[in-house]
Amino acid sequence: PQNRRRDYAQKKMSETYMSIIQKRRESKTGEHEEDMIHNLMQCKYKDGNAIPDKEIAHMMIALLMAGQHSSSATESWITLRLASRPDIQDELLQEQKDMLGVNADGSIKELTYANLSKLTLLNQVVKETLRIHAPIHSILRKVKSPMPIEGTAYVIPTTHTLLAAPGTTSRMDEHFPDCLHWEPHRWDESPSEKYKHLSPTTALGSIAEEKEDYGLVSKGAASPYLPFGAGRHRCIGEQFAYVQLQTITATMVRD
């Protein structure tokens, strides 16, 4: 049969999570209240029914796999882009020396979570890569009820499925001049004359909040920068993904 190994692996992962959930229900302790499994175990559907353990297990598999493949693909793009820009590599290394400090033996001091926020160019490298190589290339949504298109006579029927591509607007010159050119310095807070013409322009709909900050966390759907979606269904792993990508890139540069 097709996909035998995939199905077997999925079954084993499901059984692993089911076992963890069952043990927690039996122990009835609050020691895990800060993690995702515990929170899902407390959730209920709108009708008041608790989420079945099997569904919780499958949600955890989705979270695990989504965080693994999208981050690894993005890190590959970061590596490829840096390989073509030795000057950016040198700047990243110097940034760590300046912001983290250097030990007596010449090695750079330890990278910590608190220090990541100090590495501005590193953050911009990640943001610029996500802008051009969006991890979410398309989103499909089934039409549940007829959808009139404002200002037109069109109505999308329930027999249709809609496709949205969040990465489209981040590849438009209207919002990011010379949009296909990979340049982390376009995100500089006070860009020099060399990079000023590449600075992001305006948000869709001229939303003031989005004009001020295209953001580490993209809050509004009006922003042209949506690598992790927006609104209530924005990727819950966005912050973790940034930390993961920054840590891997910083380690690669210093080593």
UniProtKB/TrEMBL annotation:
Q: Which cofactors?
A: heme
Q: InterPro entries under this entry?
A: Cyt_P450, Cyt_P450_CS, Cyt_P450_E_grp-IV, Cyt_P450_sf
For the biological process aspect of GO, one term held by this record is: ergosterol biosynthetic process
Q: What Pfam families does the database record attribute to this sequence?
A: p450
Keyword Transferase on this protein? yes
GO terms for MF: heme binding; iron ion binding; methyltransferase activity; monooxygenase activity; oxidoreductase activity, acting on paired donors, with incorporation or reduction of molecular oxygen
Q: Which residues bind heme?
A: C235
Q: State the superkingdom.
A: Eukaryota
UniProtKB keywords: Heme, Iron, Metal-binding, Methyltransferase, Monooxygenase, Oxidoreductase, Transferase
Q: Which family does it belong to?
A: Belongs to the cytochrome P450 family.
Q: What is this protein called?
A: Eburicol 14 alpha-demethylase
**What is the protein's species of origin?**
Zymoseptoria tritici
* High-level lineage: Eukaryota, Fungi, Dikarya, Ascomycota, Pezizomycotina
